[in-house]
Amino acid sequence: MFLFLTPFLGMTLVHCSMLTLQNLSNLWNQPKLNSETLVICSTFLLTIIILYFMRKPRKVYLVDFACYKPEPSYKCSKEHCLKIAESMRVFTKESLEFAKKILERSGIGQDAYGSNGILQNPQDFSMAEARRESEMVIFGAIDELLAKTGVKLVDIGILVVNCSLFNPQPSLSAMIINRYKLRANILSFNLAGMGCSAGLISIQLAKDLLQVHGDSYALVVTTENVTSSWYAGNERSMLVTNSLFRVGGAAILLSNLTSDRRHSKYQLMYSIRTHNGADDKSYNSIMQQEDENNILGVSLSKELIRVAGDTLKANITALGPLVLPLSEQLIFLANLIMKRIFKMKIKSYIPDFKLAIEHFCIHPGGRAVLDEVEKSLGLSEWHMEPSRMTLFRFANTSSSSLWYELAYTEAKGRIKKGDKVLQLGFGAGFKCNSVVWHAIRSINPANEKNPWIDEINDFPVFVPKVTPVIY
């Protein structure tokens, strides 16, 4: 349409440049006697309207999402986790004692889920077992999502999958296409090595693709693989991941169809990405590498909490002007001017995001990470409850954790029409990514099916700073 109207636009501009005040007066008083000018002006106006709608971003809706909940037989208590580690006979007494201290201070409960490859005796860390774990989690989440939304497989035009450490050939996205026989011209993407914040990166990638491809659905799948990422060495910086990570995954359906607004839960408002990989300390804070005995694992540096705090500040500084009320922005700007320009030694002003955001879903990388974010954003226990309860019930399920937190908020009946939800994720690199959703309608827990519904009345629970582990 734009190319078709370009010649008419040129003609209109030429004619408009020749108009005089008398012509405009005649057009106003005697439009029937100036049909040529009227047609030209109408064409010009129509062109402007078409250009406006062509450049206007498409609205992206979150139709629904599903989080996978394994069978009860996959539950792995902290005591059982230590018994498994001890039975492998590869960990020293010092390593087992260190793992015990991590579990005691982790904020993780007794019902998080382990993988079949780790729970069986002897353990199986093969590629085949890792694939079986991914198939169980991914297919389980997608099956539930399809049942909830009723979307036809042929209508899914975009597929984005993220799994940081497990990157098989064919890819996980190809595995999904094969299982569900998705159409041949589907736009599929498989993101690897992007850490726990890759789930929000996947959302932004799907959003960008939906801006280009009209009348389409995007399926986003976010997960991690515990079987393939188990560390069987004695380097302390690498032992932490064994204690914190558990099985989990989520599937999300996005749409740019206007007709889907009334069927959807949320509208995507903003997505902000911050990448501090240019800084060496940030880049090396989370690193997959071999230890001194050539055993592969993921190393977490002592600088991780500080790096996460710095990256968080950079991200919320970019997010603030988009969501904060003007009063908060002015106070923040005044504080910044006094510090940067007048060199005044005053405390940095932290904007009150609670004035703009009702619900917060913070990546549960561990108790220390949640404590840092709570302090940085000045959040209350109520705001942190979905994150802390997700860490307690499901542990760190990597990039999918944010969706278990949103499911918790829905199961509690907290989502009301017009509410805004902030999802905040951290990942290797080091990255901090945030997404803001706008609730299109209130969520009635009675109509929901998610991993919390059957046990939501048992939460929240008190989680002590230290929970003794005896095995």
Automatic annotation (TrEMBL):
Protein name (database record): 3-ketoacyl-CoA synthase
Chief site of localization: membrane
EC number: 2.3.1.-
GO cellular component: membrane
Family: Belongs to the thiolase-like superfamily. Chalcone/stilbene synthases family.
Transmembrane segments: 35-54, 186-206, 316-338
GO term, biological process aspect, one: fatty acid biosynthetic process
Pathway(s): Lipid metabolism; fatty acid biosynthesis
Subcellular location: Membrane
Catalytic reactions of this protein: a very-long-chain acyl-CoA + malonyl-CoA + H(+) = a very-long-chain 3-oxoacyl-CoA + CO2 + CoA
Keywords: Acyltransferase, Membrane, Signal, Transferase, Transmembrane, Transmembrane helix
UniProt domain Beta-ketoacyl-[acyl-carrier-protein] synthase III C-terminal: residue ranges: 357-437
Entry keyword Transmembrane: yes
InterPro entries in the record: 3-ktacl-CoA_syn, ACP_syn_III_C, FAE1_typ3_polyketide_synth, Thiolase-like
Signal peptide annotation: 1-16
Top-level taxonomic group: Eukaryota
Broad class of enzyme this protein falls into: transferase
Gene3D superfamilies reported in the protein's UniProt record: 3.40.47.10
Organism listed in the record: Manihot esculenta (Cassava)
GO molecular function: fatty acid elongase activity
Residues annotated as domain FAE: 52-340
